[in-house]
Write a structure and sequence with these properties.
Layout: H1 3-38, E1 41-44, E2 47-50, H2 51-81, H3 87-95, H4 103-112, H5 116-129, H6 132-144, H7 148-161, H8 167-173, H9 179-191, H10 198-206
Length: about 220
């Protein structure tokens, strides 16, 4: 056999072996796909996931996108509040927000905006939303916001929603080591007329806090 024919035969063997290997790999992939499909898994972004996992991932992504959109929208509305020609409409838009995706953006304004009326509009919107996250922001504002008027505004909205949503957190705060927070919690419970908190309030009044100073 000539060298050229020998090389040609070897090339055919190598080609055939490669084709067989490729076919075997494809067969393995097909078998794996069938196995995963039978177990309820779907190929998604380079991995195997259940339909429920994919749904959760996509929901989280949509929620994150919606939150980012609200951040931008509220920034725009906040700028318009300072423009006389647009202030009334911007204020009304803030007050009428009812989308749960806006909670984090509203919470940021409640926490940091220097203007009381803007914080009050955001608190009104959070009370309109009434999702667990929105109520949580209201309770936190009623308890720990540094501005007394903002705390009162939050308490008033919680009163409309129902005092029961805030009482457990406020009662827990009565056991705080921070006297100022205890006083704020007691004040909020008083404004909510939370009769169920009378016992814990009495206990808080009787609690002694020992502070060590110097030596």
């Amino acid at each position: 056999m000539s060298p050229r024919r020998t090389l040609s035969c070897l090339a055919l063997v190598v080609t055939a072996a490669a084709a067989l290997a490729a076919a075997a790999d494809e067969s393995v992939r097909t078998t794996q796909q069938q196995s995963m499909a039978e177990r309820g898994y779907v190929r998604h972004r380079g991995g195997w996931r259940t339909a429920q996992e994919i749904d959760l991932i996509e929901r989280a992504e949509r929620a994150t996108l919606a939150q980012k959109e609200w951040n931008g929208r509220l920034e725009r509305l906040r700028r318009q509040v300072e423009q006389p020609a647009q202030a009334d409409r911007a204020a009304e838009e803030i007050r009428e927000i009812s989308d749960p995706a806006a909670v984090s953006a509203l919470a940021a304004l409640v926490a940091k905006d220097p203007v009381l009326r803007v914080r009050s509009w955001c608190i009104e919107a959070l009370a309109r939303i009434r999702s667990p996250d929105a109520v949580g922001v209201l309770v936190s504002a009623a308890l720990d916001h540094p501005d007394p008027e903002t705390r009162i505004a939050a308490v008033e909205r919680l009163q409309l929603i129902g005092p029961h949503v805030a009482v457990p957190t406020l009662v827990a705060a009565l056991r705080s080591a921070d006297n100022a927070q205890v006083n704020r919690a007691a004040e909020a419970l008083g404004r909510l007329n939370a009769t169920s908190a009378v016992g814990p309030l009495i206990d808080a009044l009787e609690t002694q806090h020992v502070t060590v100073t110097g030596d």
